Each structure stands twice: as structure tokens, then as C-alpha cells.
Amino acid sequence: MKGDAVRGHLDALLLAALEQGPLHGYAIITAVQKRSGGVLELRTGTMYPALNRLERLGLLRSDWQSAGERRRRCYELTDAGRRALGEERTAWRELTAAIGAVLDPSPAPGPAT
Amino acid sequence: MKGDAVRGHLDALLLAALEQGPLHGYAIITAVQKRSGGVLELRTGTMYPALNRLERLGLLRSDWQSAGERRRRCYELTDAGRRALGEERTAWRELTAAIGAVLDPSPAPGPAT
DNA sequence: ACCTATATGTTGGCAGCCAATATATAGGCC
DNA sequence: GGCCTATATATTGGCTGCCAACATATAGGT
């Protein structure tokens, strides 16, 4: 997969990864990788700042889990995050429909043919 | 549609627009706009340099039509351009499948259930 | 002692798109 | 004649958002 593949859809991927329940950053990377069949690999330099940004926007909340184990920052969706995910899904469907229609145009139905 | 919507897929759109036959730049803009249901609007500052680049890469060839009419630069696909379009289509399907799988994960089928 | 996996982050760079601007012809309208 | 819009092509400068590289730390295997 060429670079910049997820450009413009990173937020959607992160929000979707957290939909089924809280995860920490490293687990998000592996979850996205697994769900995409190994195609999508989030970079730490891309993801961590993005998670921070989404938290500042109120779409995620995080808490540190340091007990016994290694320290982990666990993220979960807020209500606003769930709404944002819905909007991201809609935008994604619109975009794929639009680009798909250009890439594979359905033959224009002629009048009475 | 938010900005940068076509990011990373501009070449695919241009090649696809030229698949059914030669067009000049302005006609490509209107064709893409129409095919996408008005969603995608190519900017001149984006498209013309891209067309130039694709021609330098040997994926398009162009000729000026200045007879009588306004001058127009008409582009058409080369054989390499047709092959590139096929590759762009494949890449697009892979990308949409991968992102789609993350956005709308199908429930993992348990063994023998 | 060393490597790998786990885990989180920062910094600098740059590709690729956009807005704004420039130019030119043709046709309609007042 | 003067103005606006559509047609038609092109360049410039700027910014967004991702990436590679680096930095740090613990735990477990060999």
C-alpha cells in the first residue's frame, strides 16, 4: 500500500477502532492492521498526535493504566465521538460513491431504449 | 465535500475521465462533476499541472486544436495510460475494501458455529 | 548481553492539493 | 459601446496532514 493511503480518513479509522470498546494506542494499531487484512499500518508518528487531537476535540477520553503492568493510555469514545463516527461513515460512503461513479461509470440509460 | 477529497486519487479520476475518448481540460472538469453527481469539482490549479505530469509520464498524449475555435489542448490515453488506469482501479478497490473493513467490520465467524 | 515485542511520544520534512491570480476569446444583454 | 458570464489554459504561494526517524522505557526470550 502506497504512502498516504489513509489520508483524510485517519479519524474515521481511529473512531471505528474504538467503537466496540476501549483500546490503548498500540492495540489500535494491531486492531486496524488485523481488520484490514494487513493492508493498513498506522504509524506512531501519525496516530498518537491524532489521538491527542481527537481527545482535545472531545471525541475521545483517555485514562492511564499503570497498575502493575506497563503504563498504557486507554482511549474510549465519548458520545460526541460516536456521533462523529456516524458522520465519518456518511462522508466515506459519499466519497466512495462519487469516486466510484467516475472510475466505473454506469452507462447512461438512453431515453426509451 | 470537504477539501482534499480527491487526494491521492486525482490521477485515477483523470485517466478514467479519458477512457471513453479524448477530452480537453475544461471538459474533464465538467465530465467528472457530472459523473460524480456534482460532488467532485476539480480545480484548475490542481488539474492542469496533473495533466502535464501524466503526459510527461507517458500516460497521456495531447494535441492543440486551434483551428477556427478557441485553442484547446485535447488529451487522450496512451496504452501505458490504460494500463495505469487498470492499476489505479485495483488500488482503489483494495483501499476501499481495507478502510471499509475497518469502518464496518463484519463479525468474526467463530469456528463451527 | 542482545534482540524483539510492547508501549508512548516528538521533531523535521515534504507531497499534493487549494485559493488566488493571470490571460484570452466568444456570446448575450442593455 | 460596455459589462457580465461561460469557455479555456496556466502559474504562484501557502497550508494540511501524513511520514520517517528518533527518543525512551519495560519485559521476556536465547
From TrEMBL, chains A, B:
Ranges for domain Transcription regulator PadR N-terminal: 14-86
Lineage: Bacteria, Bacillati, Actinomycetota, Actinomycetes, Kitasatosporales
Source domain of life: Bacteria
Protein name: PadR family transcriptional regulator
Gene3D superfamilies: Winged helix-like DNA-binding domain superfamily/Winged helix DNA-binding domain
SUPFAM superfamilies: Winged helix' DNA-binding domain
Record-linked NCBIfam families: padR_acidobact
Pfam families, per the entry: PadR
